[in-house]
Amino acid sequence: MKHALFLATRALWWYRGRTTTIVLCLMLTLWLPVTVRLVLRQFQQEIAWRSQSTPLVIGAPGSRVDLVLHALYLQTRPATQISMSEVEYINGTGFATAIPLNARYLTQGKNGAAGVPIVGTSIEYFEFRNLQTASGTRPLLLGDCVVGAEAARKLRLNVGDTILSASQNAFDIAGDYPLQLKVVGVLQAAHSPDDEVVFTDVTTTWVIAGIGHGHQSLEGADVDPGLLLQSDQGSVTANAAVLPYTQITESNIDSFHFHGDPGTFPLTAVIAVPASEKSRILLMGRYAAARDSAQCLKPGDVIGELMAIVLRVEQLMRLSSLLAAIVTTLMLSLVLFLSLRLRAAEINTMFCLGCSRGTIARIVGSEILLMLGTAAVLSSGLAIISTQLASDVLRSLLF
Questions:
Q1: Strands annotated E in 207-277
Q2: Positive or negative: CA dihedral 27, 28, 31, 33
Q3: What sign results for the dihedral spanned by CA atoms 24, 28, 34, 40?
Q4: CA 316: distance to chain centroid?
Q5: Choosing a second label site near 90 at 20 to 30 A (CA), which of 98, 106, 228, 339?
Q6: C-alpha angle 111/150/200, rounded to 5°?
Q7: What pTM value is reported for the model?
Q8: Residue 344: helix, strand or coil by DSSP?
Q9: DSSP state, 281?
Q10: Helix 299-342 and helix 344-352: axis angle, to 10°?
Q11: Three-state secondary structure call for residue 238
């Protein structure tokens, strides 16, 4: 057998053009179904883990899938919003702890990297997702933010740096003003979507929305006279040049205030963490029976429906791969048959030199096994690399 392998190796090297073509065909035939299966399995595990660890999601009526994906991955923005009154309602029932989410804004790009989502939430979110800071602290004051590990790497942010929010409409001069956020912490890598966003308190996102703002002080000797429309002993009247602050500092943080009823302030979603399975069922029953302003969803069920569609796509890919494998096998069989016909004189010479038909069969079989083994090794390595790249691309396309 050792001699057969040696002769097979030399024969493959001599016909290296043909060998390379056959190995590449085999590699691609093996690589595609293996990669699709690995990518879908990894994607299924990741999305199932994230959804199963999130008990309930509450959001505006509409697409169930869009709402759940928004609450889980924090990348997409739902078409409609709910209000802070949903948080008050959930907490008031005593069935669950409500964690608000307001993720409608992005940061401005920095150091050549695109902006990342700004997620307004409460301190309970960090405890719920078990997010720990690698440096600094969690957001404590208005205007503070903590950056996910991957977002910090892309934007090159460290504790003490600042970053601006992106305006939603650059041509709306009466709209929201970019807010300068102060980085007070960087999170440890959680290997989850939380690594790719900037977290701040939900009240800070309301400042970005223009619901809350501060005003410049118009009293004192250092006030710009151009900002005053009228000044007398009793009052000071400002003109339109006085704009809301875009930077929150220790000197002006006390001037920030909010207009309107806090219960009407916008949120994009709410995560509800029930105290028990019974509380979860009761809360879902409340929303199903008497709460039309929002929908209450179990992420695991919604993601299960989504994965059922993905699995049907996988079955179609399996069928396509099977047909491709059959066609490739027939083509390679034809190539090998024609190759043996062309090598008839060579095989006859080996027979005349004393090689038995069994030895010749072992040499040809060794050639086939060597090509199959090489293709399997190459396809396995390519599948591992493709899986790592494709899972990130698939996640970014979907979420």
A1: 212-213, 228-231, 236-238, 257-258, 266-267, 269-274
A2: negative
A3: positive
A4: 25
A5: 106
A6: 90
A7: 0.72
A8: helix
A9: H
A10: 70
A11: strand
